[in-house]
Amino acid sequence: MDSKLRSASSLRRVRAFFNAPVVTFLLNILSYFAFLCLFAYVLMVDFQPTPSWSERFIYLWVFSLVCEELRQLFYSPDGSGLAKRASVYFGDFWNKLDVTAILLFVAGLACRLLPALLYSGRVLLALDFILLCLRLLHIFTVSRMLGPKIIILKRMMKDIFFFLLLLAVWVVSFGVAKQAILIHNESRTDWLFRGVLYHSYLTIFGQIPPYIDGVDFDPDHCSPDGSDPYKPKCPESDPSLGEPAFPQWLTVTLLCLHLLVTNILLLNLLIAMFNYTFQEVQECTDQVWKFQRLHLIQEYQARPPAPPPFILLGHLQLLFLRLVLKVPPQRHRQFNNKLVETEEAPLLSWEAYLKEHYLHGLQSQRQQSLEQRVRDIGDKVDAMMDLLEVERGRRWGSSEQRPASLEEQVARASGVLLRITQTLRSAGLVSEGDVPCLAPRKGPEEQEQEQDPALESRLLEEDPTDTHHISARQLLYPSSSVERFPVPNEKVPWEEEFLIYNPSFYTAEKSGPVDPDGSNRALLGQILYNAVDGAVDRRSFHGPYEVQDGLPRNPRGRTGLQGRGALSRFGPNHKLQPVVTRWRRNQDGVICRRNFRKVLEVLLLTSQQSEPWALPGGSQDPGEMLPQKFKAVIPGELHKAFGNLLDQGTQVYRGYVDHPRNTDNAWVEMVAVSIHFSSQNDETLWKLNQYLKGLSDPPGGKRNVEVCWQLVDKHIPLYPDHKAILRKVATHYEAHY
């Protein structure tokens, strides 16, 4: 009894061993190699009028292959219909190759059995041998080294198809022109084909067509009238001199052009196409190869374990089980090539869960490292310092603002007293010694350095009732020695009476399309205010403004200076300010945070190292969507993309800007639009980063303008009005500032 159990157990182990897909695969490889060797032997050595035993064995092997292909076509493991099974079967490239090889073998066998078509049958069988050898590539897909290369090879076949279309046009055009110039009325089809296609194609590989230049012209090696079927027809020649009469310079020129286009242009184009296909497919080839290997393993697991031709025994067993014993087949679901929406959603959710689990594991590993712990402690210290600064600003902010406010009022009072003293001295009411000594005035750079951060919020005048602009009343006008007439806060509105108000008239020299300097009031009278004046829009964002004596009046009130100053237009000077931002990310692509808020990066520029950073914006040329400075810092290929992003961007401010260059008759109005790249995989952002990397290392090592990404923070060295815009953008995205 024990011996019977041991023998049964051994039989089950042997059956399990041979049913394993790896063993089945190896047996099929050995069988296929033996079949190809025997097939090659029959074609080259043992091809008799009457089929030999070796040739009959090949017929049996092919018959077993036909039976296996029929089993794959009609066997349905999931119980689907014949139409679906046929669609799945013929959707596989290798199945199509098998069917083509079988049909060609059947055609060759039919011709081979007929004595009159014996040679034709051998030719067809020889061609079928090529297809059967190509079937080996399907077996090699299981290799980790050869599998991905076979996938890339299949993709490159499409490139060759399009390349052959271009090559055929040039080969045929050159071949027809050469044949028409050299040969007169060639009536033999085979030689005509050689002259037009065969010789033109071989020229690519260095075989120059005969008689192309007349150097090797020999009447003994050609047929003058084309009657000799083994010799080409002689080219156009002079019978009396025995020399060619065709234009040799023309044929040589055509040959040179043909070699130039085919050997240099087209072949290099093919290499470039192969290189692009290789780089495009290489990233995902490994995944595709793994799926194909799984499909190959499933195929050999589902087929009978015996290799051809012994696989016929497995087919007989299946027929006996299904037809005689009525045993139903084992049903199982196959993998789907496409998923419906109800099946795709759970799969995507599962993939997202695995991704989050993997990222969480990486984050846990980083947190356990000593460097990460030190980095976390540093972030906590920074957060605590920020909280302390906020608390100190809340307690001492009012105390610090009071001296600054007193200093500002004293400076303005000193300016008014200086004006009054100068007026009295000019009238002769006071002497030189009675003039009081006033404190020296501070320059614009010192004023910008000592500017109170609390005044930053007033640089953008959003409240129509707040007319006390600050920067537009600085005593010294920027980039000049012109002084403004001191204007106290209560005298800023035009409605307030200010009898001694006598500002200077100043217009800076400026190139480009600008308004007249104001000396000729007749020219100023031609300007159309509160409307679109040609290509210039002179309408204000805050509604109609007053025009007095041919000059517009600043809607925010007096500034202490008349004229248009350093601005280009009288009235509103419209500026467009794109604010390009992205999320700051670490090396792993995770968004950085500070004080529990996401951190932004903004695109800034500076002309010199000593100047503060600035947002790349400004005035627009007529008909242009992007500002001049913004177009100068981005590549031309991205102008259209940023124009579309600007139309889709978020407008964070639109209105009057308290600018130091504002005057009573000219002022700046701005539209600030936020362009935010939320994804690091955005194509426009990637191209912009590549362009900025090229700017970071110029050929000469010296740059006139520096453009880069800067961290959005309140301590960033930025122009005050730009910093106010940046704070609005950070508030809009609930980011750190």
The description of the largest β-sheet is: 6 strands, mixed
Q: Unreliable segments (pLDDT under 50, ≥5 consecutive)?
A: 14-19, 437-459, 461-466
Give the mean pLDDT: 79
What order do the strands of the largest sheet run in, or round the barrel if closed? 3-14-15-10-13-16
- Structural class based on helices, strands and sheet pairing: alpha+beta
Beta-strand level of the residues, as a percent range?
5-15%
The tally of helices reads 19
Structure described in brief:
The chain has 19 helices and 16 strands.
Fold topology:
Elements: H1 2-19, H2 21-44, H3 53-74, H4 82-90, H5 93-112, H6 118-134, H7 136-140, H8 146-182, H9 189-202, E1 237-238, E2 243-244, H10 248-302, H11 311-324, H12 341-368, H13 370-426, H14 444-449, E3 460-461, E4 504-507, H15 521-524, E5 532-533, E6 536-537, E7 547-548, E8 551-552, E9 561-565, E10 571-583, E11 593-594, E12 597-598, E13 600-606, H16 628-633, H17 639-648, E14 650-657, E15 666-677, H18 683-696, E16 706-711, H19 720-732
Parallel strand pairs: 4-9, 10-15
Antiparallel strand pairs: 1-2, 3-14, 5-6, 7-8, 10-13, 11-12, 13-16, 14-15
Helix pairs in contact: 2-3, 2-6, 2-10, 3-5, 5-6, 8-9, 8-10
